[in-house]
Specification:
The protein is 41% helix and 19% strand. By secondary structure, it is α+β, with helices and mostly antiparallel strands. It has a two-stranded antiparallel ribbon with strand order 1-2. Strand 1 and strand 2 form a beta hairpin. Helix 1 crosses helix 2. The protein is globular.
């Protein structure tokens, strides 16, 4: 499991934190997560985030 994620945009660190923290900030990471996780049919993004493992596939 990851302890910390770092989000880089155009060569600059724009966010860092755990998966849950970054989702709660609703910034770039959360927007990218929503795009990526939207491809998993039947998976609730908030439920996956609450699980805290960063992996929507159970």
């Amino acid at each position: 499991m990851l302890d910390r994620l770092v989000v880089i945009d155009e060569g600059q660190i724009v966010e860092s934190g755990t998966h849950g923290e970054l989702l709660a900030r609703d910034g770039l990471y959360a927007a990218l997560w929503r795009c990526q996780s939207g491809g998993f049919i039947g998976v609730d993004v908030e439920e996956a985030a609450a699980a805290g493992d960063g992996n929507p596939v159970q």
